[in-house]
Specification:
The structure is a homodimer.
Chain A lengths: L4 E6 L7 H14 L4 E4 L3 H5 L3 E3 L1 H4 L2 H9 L19 H13 L2 E8 L1 H16 L5 E6 L15 H19 L6 E7 L6 H5 L13 E3 L7 H10 L4 E7 L30 H13 L2 E6 L3 H4 L6 H19 L5 E8 L3 E8 H4 L20 H7 L11 E2 L2 E2 L6
Parallel strand pairs in A: 1-2, 1-4, 4-5, 5-10, 6-8, 6-9, 7-8
Antiparallel strand pairs in A: 2-3, 10-11, 12-13
Helix pairs in contact in A: 1-4, 1-12, 9-10
Amino acid sequence: MIQGNFAVAQSGGPTAAINATLLGVIKEAISNGRKIYGMVNGILGAVNNNFVELNSTFEKEENCELLKLTPAAYLGSCRFKLPDTDEKKELFEQIFENFNKLNITMVLYIGGNDSMDTVKKLSEYALKNGKNVSFVGVPKTIDNDLMGTDHTPGFGSAAKFVATTVSEIARDSAVYANPSATIIEIMGRNAGWLTAASALARSKTSSAPHLIYLPERPLSVKQLIEDVKNCPEKNIIIAVSEGIRNENGIYFSNLDCNLSHDEFGHAQLSGSASVVESIIKDNFGIKTRSVELNVLQRCSSHFASLTDLDESVMIGSAGVKAILEGQTGIVMGFNRIGDYKIEIISNKATDVANLEKAVPSDYIAENGHDVTEKALKYLSPLIMGEPQMITENGIPKHISLK
Amino acid sequence: MIQGNFAVAQSGGPTAAINATLLGVIKEAISNGRKIYGMVNGILGAVNNNFVELNSTFEKEENCELLKLTPAAYLGSCRFKLPDTDEKKELFEQIFENFNKLNITMVLYIGGNDSMDTVKKLSEYALKNGKNVSFVGVPKTIDNDLMGTDHTPGFGSAAKFVATTVSEIARDSAVYANPSATIIEIMGRNAGWLTAASALARSKTSSAPHLIYLPERPLSVKQLIEDVKNCPEKNIIIAVSEGIRNENGIYFSNLDCNLSHDEFGHAQLSGSASVVESIIKDNFGIKTRSVELNVLQRCSSHFASLTDLDESVMIGSAGVKAILEGQTGIVMGFNRIGDYKIEIISNKATDVANLEKAVPSDYIAENGHDVTEKALKYLSPLIMGEPQMITENGIPKHISLK
């Protein structure tokens, strides 16, 4: 067992579950009788010697429950890419000096792709320069595009938000007798995992979304028009990834099309959904509407996936166990057994950092506008269950550092 | 007690609670041993003889629970304005003939402002032409802008969605160390009730939103810049109504300003939030983001206000009681007693149809960018409580007509 104290940081874009992972880390450190410090704003906290002691707050069970249900990053985040290890030695020395002041020998870093690069660099520097500090990465991202894990913590809650919201918008769109098209824009510039999850909105009483477009599959304007023409639905619901591209690789959001104007005379554009909306309006003359789910996909936590939250706690806790046993330079991950059980695994940070995992082609229907049964089987278990919310004055109660 | 059967319709834009009101109507009719028919797509159902029998479906308790939790309009809706009673007599005769075929003598019409005009016209026509059919309106709208009622069914759930979502977006925005402004656009072109409800996002751990702009108060670009300059927050959250106007009465969404471009080179515009975003970006050079809550405000039902849902059932039921006792040409409403109890009242449809209720000036702070304590006291009880959701495959289960 490694001696010394823990530090933990959160990095990259927030999710509904990144604080659940933080909770898993904190609880496991406390249950091992160790001190644990939070680095404020990711690696910047270590650079600037901005640490916060976490034991006293999270020895109280009510604060633990609140942390699990609070969206975004309790410790703050950063988008700071560490330079190469031999490039700016003084920066690395400063970080390790600050760790040393608090006797921090074990650092858990919760983040996405770029953050795993931080884990890789710091662990390599420590090994090369005889620093007695270990680093373990714990993944998170709503995008689900990390290698070396069945899925990422945070994705399940975002997927549940997408599926739930698409199902509600479909109800809303279906109330009028006149034909309409509603286009819903979903996050994911290169990987269409979240857009694929919109298929989970379907139920015995709704077949929406009727068309689903992922960035993994080029979409010509001609094909889009053909698909809409062939769709038998009166009120069409279309789920599009923000990153859909045409056959020449040009983002739809950059297409120079004849944009429609709304009743106030201003052009309706912004993202891929607005462009798809304009194309449909111009070609079919039906009522159209585009809805961008925007940051709600990553911060809506009042109907999170309990599976996601529980797994996020679990992987945080597993990271602590691994580092205590002497591991460094690794990133934790999930392995799926049957349908559906999860075991925790780990990969070398060098093997997973800076890579992106796209939706595989056998998850995308041949017609290019749907997902396959295999995709649904993969996605479905990830959105199961809901946490019991704690509310105050009618809204969810959160916990904050300040 | 009036003899005969019931009909019920839903009209105008959907809400999260309009089906709860429908449930109140159906249950009360059934408990009085009557037959009840749904008019499909509002008054169009009566015009086109498109009725659906409701007793058999809603004698099952599980379907009642689902109806209460299903957003949008179970019976479909319409935006059809009836002509004047002496203008198109054959249309009115057709409607009453269709009612007569099913022995419908009592009609409940659930809707907003325009729908109360339908109640007014049909009840007047019936009285003038000796038709034995009574009409009672039951209000709904997320906009809360109807006269003759303390608040409208549907508003509380939309207000709770706005408050909850603003609180979550505020967490998301606060994670980075760099200054930023996030502008959230909320529905309400002439009345700022929903935007005012964003103030309910504040808690012991968050002071967001920091600036709130309602359409009732003109806002000059100069004042906006001044307000942002004076705001001490690092990560500013601004709630704007879609209908904010400048000192010359021009909608912000129509302002011809120097629009910023995002990293993909396309202009970022559409509504008032985008214009406010551009102004802040151009004047302060900080990171900005605008979020349009869009239709989610009216269809997000998975975290509805239980107070709203329960009151919506209650007012539907009260409408049935009133019509059975011989009332016609009235619109049901809420009267608030103390803080907080509700009693059901009614008004003549002629007194409330086609009018709009704005946010009163003593609900708006003198500085023009906040609401008063009085507003908070009014709004707060309306968002209390949450229903226990029924889910299937990880998403809320709904009921649908088809």
